[in-house]
Design a protein that fits this description.
The protein is mainly β. The protein is globular, with a radius of gyration of 21 Å. It starts with a helix and ends in a 6-residue tail after the last strand.
Length: 308
């Protein structure tokens, strides 16, 4: 019997193909289902292949599914690249505004996804900062070089601002709209915490549980993207402590989750919604044809009435 979502569409049919999909661990066994759906203009038709999840190896997964917005890999094309290839979008970019409230997953969420363009004039205060992606033979994910992490904080003992920078070599970060974490490799995480005035060893041992009152504008963290020869700060994105506050740590609302968690390999980071939702983001493939791709992401400071 076809999956429920296919039965609800007269245009869907099962391709009769299944495959395991791996990310950092076996993710799921899928069946391919192909849809041909009318666009808002009745003269246009959009045809897309989706993967129907049969099972997965993740212990906790709150999503109803994955909307692929990276690059086409394996045996299916991502939604947006399909729209590009079928000539149904004007520009090879999409824009994302996450909204101000992140627990609403009902019929009217606040977030806005713009395919084939962006709405930065509506959402952005000032100019956008563009982040170059790592050069790859075949693009798979939105992966950017990260050259340094800088932090500043107000010292309680001297009441002076302390600043420090963690220089990185060959570090790479993946921007992931589906991830709820801001992850750094274990090798550099201690230094990153020290730069913003936190003691990671004390947090890890349970000797210190960060209170949400500690997440304020007295400390900042700056991620400086780009290769080694790029000008310092040219592709930098800054967040303050208040923007990184996520209540509910240790199952108590007065405690906030530590701003960074861990990823195993040195030089690897995974930057998800804790960072992305603080900005309006534009994801630009750089060309309408695969051979001409020159991807980059642009971040814009949200206007005051648009901020979380």
């Amino acid at each position: 019997m076809p999956p429920p979502h296919q039965r609800q569409s007269s245009k869907g049919h099962l391709v009769r193909c299944s495959t395991p999909v791996h990310q950092t661990s076996p993710l799921a066994l899928h069946e391919l289902t192909k849809f041909s759906l009318p666009a808002s203009d009745p003269t246009l038709t959009w045809s897309q292949t989706f993967l129907s999840v049969v099972n997965n190896s993740w212990r906790f997964i709150t999503a109803d599914g994955f909307l692929g917005l990276a690059f086409s890999t394996r045996n299916t094309s991502t939604l947006f690249e399909t729209l590009i290839q079928q000539g149904l979008v004007d520009r090879s970019r999409f824009g994302i505004y996450f909204g101000k409230e992140f627990s609403n997953t009902g019929a009217s969420p606040e977030g806005i996804l713009t395919l084939g363009g962006d709405k930065n004039e509506h959402f952005v205060d000032g100019n956008l900062t563009w982040i170059p992606m790592s050069q790859e033979i075949v693009y798979q994910v939105w992966r950017a070089p990260l050259k340094a992490i800088s932090g500043s904080h107000l010292r309680s003992d001297t009441n002076e601002i302390s600043s420090s920078t963690v220089a990185l070599s060959l570090a790479r970060v993946i921007f992931d709209t589906g991830s709820g974490s801001l992850s750094l490799s274990e090798a550099i995480k201690g230094e990153a915490y020290a730069a913003i005035g936190f003691n990671w060893t004390a947090i890890l041992s349970g000797a210190h549980i960060p209170r949400c009152t500690e997440f304020n504008s007295s400390w900042t963290v700056t991620f400086d993207f780009g290769e080694r020869d790029d000008a310092e700060g040219r592709h930098a994105v800054r967040l303050d402590g208040a923007q990184l506050a996520r209540p509910g740590f240790a199952s108590r609302e007065e405690f906030c989750y530590p701003p960074f968690d861990s990823r195993g390999s040195y030089g690897f980071g995974l930057f998800g919604t804790p960072l992305l939702r603080q900005f309006y983001s534009v994801w630009d493939f750089g060309a309408m044809d695969v051979a001409g791709y020159a991807p980059r992401v642009r971040f814009g400071k949200l206007k005051a009435d648009m901020r979380p």
